[in-house]
Amino acid sequence: MIVAKTPCQSGRAGHPAHLAAHCAQPIVFLTCTTHGRRQVLADERVHAELRGLWERSGEINGWYVGDYVLMPDHVHLFARQAPASDSLAKWMGMWKSVSARRIAKLMSIDPPVWQEDYFDRYIRDEDHFRRVVRYIENNPVKAGLVRMAAEWPWSSAHYRNQAGTSEKTLVHPAARRIPGTPP
Predict the structure, then answer these.
(1) Which of 126, 132, 113 is nearest to 30 (CA)?
(2) Helices 44-61 and 88-107, packing angle to 10 deg
(3) Signed CA dihedral, 126, 128, 131, 137: sign only
(4) Domain segments of the chain: what residues?
(5) How many CA atoms lie within 13 A of 123 on its CB side?
(6) What pTM value is reported for the model?
(7) Which residues make beta-bridge pairs with 11?
(8) What is the pLDDT of residues 127-154, one digit of tens each?
(9) With contact defined as beta carbons under 8 Å apart, do 67 and 77 qualify?
(10) Which tens digits make up the pLDDT trace of 114-129?
């Protein structure tokens, strides 16, 4: 059953509604997996390529990337769109296409690099956001790749630790972390 409140606050029974404070520019949690689950992403060259694409995507496509983690065969990231931006599907297609060509060349692998589809989930409130940040940051720990999240070199947790700050360091300063804050 759909309960219509405002265009931004509609929701299903048992499914929290988006908060009006952040629905105009919601934060999206995204997961992309490599084709055939090939383990090619946990590499400094791949990390540099993806970070570079994401750092420029705000100005080029209107999408700002926040916290992320590159696992060997998938990536988790948060993104937020600017008022004038490409659609999510267009932006995802762009960075996946560009990165696929570059990753294939860097890693000497044949395309395709990425699975065709991706998983997206809109963040509903601060509690949801914090739970998902903990989930992505602990992904390498849970997989047994490191003991502490900041030890995984292909993540925003590591980047934040290297910056010597307890603040969440973002790929792009316009990618606000807390729902409700304008980009």
Answers:
(1) 132
(2) 150
(3) negative
(4) 23-162
(5) 28
(6) 0.78
(7) 3
(8) 999 999 999 999 999 999 999 999 999 9
(9) yes
(10) 999 999 999 998 899 9
